[in-house]
Amino acid sequence: MEFEAVIGLEIHAELSTKSKIFCGCTTEFGGEVNTHCCPVCLGLPGALPVLNKAVVDYAIKAGIALNCNINKETYMARKNYFYPDAPKNYQITQHETPLCSEGFVEVETEEGLKKIRIERIHIEEDAGKALHEGDASFIDFNRSGVPLIEIVTRPDMRSPQEARMFFEKLRSILLYTEVSDCKMQEGSLRCDANVSIRPKGSKEFGVKTEIKNMNSFKALEKALEFEIERQINAVRNGERIVQETRRWDESKGQTIVMRSKEEAHDYRYFPEPDMVYLVVDDNWIEDIKSNMPELPDQKRKRYIENYNLPEYDAEIITASKELAAFFEEAVANGGNPKSISNWIMGEVLRTLNDREMEITDVKFKPADLVKLIELVEKGTISNTIAKKVFADMFETGKQPEKIVEEKGLVQISDEGAIRDIVNKVLDENPQSIEDFKNGKTKAMGFLVGQIMKASKGKANPQLVNKLLDEEIRKR
Amino acid sequence: MHFKYAHEIKDLLIKKEVSAEEVVKSSIERIKEVDGKIDAFLEVFEEDAIENAKSVDKKIANGEEVGALAGIPMAIKDNICLKNQKTTCASKILENFTSPYDATVVRKLKESDAIIIGRLNMDEFAMGSSTENSSIKKTKNPYDLERVPGGSSGGSAASVAAGEVYFSLGSDTGGSIRQPASLCGVVGFKPTYGRVSRYGLVAFASSLDQIGPFTRDVEDCALVLNTICGKDNLDSTSANVDVEDFTTYLNKDIKGIRVGLPKEYFGEGIDEGVKREVEKAVEALKLLGAEVKEISLPMSKYSLPVYYILSSSEASSNLARFDGIRYGYRADEFEDLVDLYVKSRSIGFGSEVKRRIMLGTYALSSGYYDAYYKKALKVKRLIIEEFKRAFEEVDLIVSPTSPSVAFKFGEKADDPLKMYLSDVCTVPVNIAGLPAVSMPVGLSEGLPVGLQIIGNYFQEGKILSLASSIEKIVNFNARPLI
Fold first, then answer.
1. Which residue of B has its CA nearest to A90?
2. How far A358 CA lies from chain B's nearest CA (Å)?
3. What CATH number is attached to the domain comprising A456?
4. Which residues of A149-183 are buried (b: 16+ CB within 10 A; e: fewer)?
5. Distance from the CA of A63 to the CA of which of A43, A169, A231, B434 falls in 20 to 30 A?
6. Predicted ipTM?
């Protein structure tokens, strides 16, 4: 029997507001322990929460970007549970009335564009952090009260790859809107997954397990692959899947049980009596709508329509806001969009990946890339040389003309000079001439290589081909 | 001097006939003299108080402007946070908690140059109607040391009644200002929900709690309300309503004012003596030209169950933070984290508090939420609507505050349900979030009887108007013999 996976994600994103959700303390990451705290975020007796308006702005912005309805009258709720780093032993969140609901994200899958539905986005507060040293435990409350949005999808994903693509797309949208800095290594973007399996074609849902706190795209994909495989094997062995919470152990490469359903909490949700209803009016929503940046999907469509970029190029370049900005600045400097895209998709991204760097780390300017492309198009340097110049630009941030000039890399287009080199190489390689005449075309390639080597790569390749052809016929 | 009014002291200070230092010292003397019998105070800040009084005197001497309550000794219920002082809620679990910040009302009192002279006893976490639930000591009624002062603000009421301070602050969740004011023969005002910031008040039931003053007369009450009312950006439930000068409402003609007597508040369970004194006050109102008529508030009978569901539910959540982890009492020995929570809370909380946490946890649990909590919210809505309709017919509503005069220690302590009935006339007001005052109108068996005046939302002024007129006519001038 063939199985398919059913995957839903719950994603927590820390909002980029300057102050916390219910008080004026800073949300800055790091800082000496327990220095970004006040009675409110410490949950001291008598302290009361006051909702930060910027948190609502950010959450609405995320809701609009993810095609959600913005719910105009909502309230905060208390989720009650005892936990040492939760200072009030309840979390202020939203329960029955999330701020945003019923949205979607479009993801380019192998079977084409697919809509992953979003059930809800709600706002809530983060907890503190427990620190353990030997036998002792300490708590740092700097993170307590940092605003979060929780984004909950419908179970619309059918493979780990799809889940990963969705998560990547979501991150890109959150980054475009500047709602969150999405730094996964700092925990500002976290992902839980609900996953079950069922016979392919079935409409029923199987028993699901929840995998907690995956903090990279790779972890999400690997954990889901493992868990789906585990569930399939279990079913094939006649075992029953039990509803439970698991975590991903990166080093072991497997998911491990954290707790089973028997220990499930009764959170005793009820409306937060320390707060009034949150009322959002049309003007508030319109105001945010009118200040929305261009989102990745809109950008992608524009690149295809205005710049004739292939779908694939447009998708890759728009996936990162910074990369798209780099591309657009290059285009604005008069470059040919397709040539720029070729360079970005090729040398630029390859070098960045090799060095594990971001586009924002590069030393050269988009205009320099345009100049490099012009040097090739004018025939000043060859494509091969251009790659060397690029490597230099990447390293030093120098302008391409300067590098070409300093290193004397200008292409040799003087027929006489090239003809001399051609003849010299032919003189040195009589066997190759013989081979060529016997129909071994490979010999031609070898000779071209030798000529380019002798010219230190500077010979104009078209001329080399033309003159070699002429000279070899004479022999 | 002990039984003068705050406004009289204020006049004497301004005329420089007395110094703040003298006033404060005399209060401290009085406390030393009588508090051993009454046990209203948990702590007296003697040095701080004298220091603060001296600086007020200096300001007056230099001709600087002083605040509206300058130099007047007062005290606060021990659930209101005062920076660098203990705030214990008369509990074991917070017995060693020192607040690092001031409640908004404390900040306002300091700005008005009032002298905060100490912390007052209460029922643990403000749960109770007799101050017998304090984990520290029992406060006695100054009129009869065998009797309770009422609760939960028993210390706040007794300290004012006994002439220890000129006014005090308490908190009222189901009647905890009005009922002890009634039992101790002083004026106790519960403002409209949201009128006074709750920031820094250790929460019992967030949607019902309200801070308010205890004073010896209505004018003092207006004076204190002037200081403590107003919008606070640190409390999102705080109301953005202008605060008028409440003293302008005093001594006004009340002719034609429509007063409703809800028949349900005069029925079964109300002591004859209480009824008699309240009815005398009503007769006085008629003499002053008020239009008195009987009204009906049938939904009020559901107030007590609604109150116990809502307040206990909120309390179970509000009190969850007291877990022995970060501050307050922690059990000496424990096995693991859960054991630490269980032992600290089992030992740290008293039985009344535990009873309500259990009740609230039950009412909020997923299987019973709809049947109890949600249903209670619906009935709350009906009670509010009933009051709204009543206030289309009348300007103010008048009733007894407490069904009985002060009762003896132990009389109701073993029967929680009997004790809960002490608040039967006051609880509906909290459910609806309305303002109400209790003022003394007479004695029954030598013990004070309180009259409750309920007003529409933000009509504190109207209540004070009626109260000041009644005050003049009934001329309650009893003093405890202590």
1. B317
2. 42
3. 1.10.10.410
4. bbbbbebbbbbbebbbbbbebbbbbbbbbebbebe
5. A43
6. 0.95
